[in-house]
Specification:
The chain is α/β, with parallel strands linked by helices and 155 residues long. Helices cover 33% and strands 26% of the residues. The radius of gyration is 14 Å and the shape is globular.
Length: 155
């Protein structure tokens, strides 16, 4: 898995509205890229709701948040509409980005899923922290606090 100090790989992926989102769209900003197993499952719903509920806090701190899974655009659109998410969910259907980052897979009920993993990317596109096997409960608050500490140290 890529670790802190590595550049985050370039990507160009569609969001829930079919709009292409690229790493370069976030140049000069702090970015959280969180990877989750599957749309409309319990833990993934908790994460989406939590990031939506705290979006104003992330925005105030100058931090952008995007979610990524292997689900397609239509699935993301339904997921966002069902729970009124205000964050972008990107579709990595061929898992190219997840593979380039080295995210692991886990088996659950006989199916393979990408492991819940979050990356903090600094304004220069460098990975500053990686969170593996994330517990979705309260993860957004941990991220916010950790990034604000990194921002204070960099100031």
């Amino acid at each position: 898995m890529l670790s802190a100090g590595n550049p985050f790989p370039n990507f160009s992926l569609p969001n829930q509205d079919g709009k292409t989102v690229k790493l370069s769209d976030f140049a000069g900003q702090w970015l959280v890229v969180y990877f989750y197993p599957k749309d409309d499952t319990p833990g993934c719903t908790i994460q989406g709701k939590s990031f939506t509920a705290t979006k104003a806090d992330f925005d105030a701190a100058g931090i952008r948040v995007i979610g990524v899974s292997a689900d397609d655009v239509a699935s993301h659109k339904n997921f966002c509409n069902k729970f009124a998410f205000t964050i972008d969910l990107l579709s990595d259907t061929d898992a190219r980005l997840m593979k380039s980052l080295g995210i692991g897979q886990a088996e659950w009920k006989g199916m393979n899923f990408w492991e819940r993993t979050s990356f903090v990317v600094d304004p220069k596109g460098v990975i500053r922290r990686v969170y593996e096997k994330v517990n979705p409960e309260g993860h957004e608050r941990v991220l916010l606090g950790d990034i604000e500490a990194m921002q204070a140290k960099a100031a």
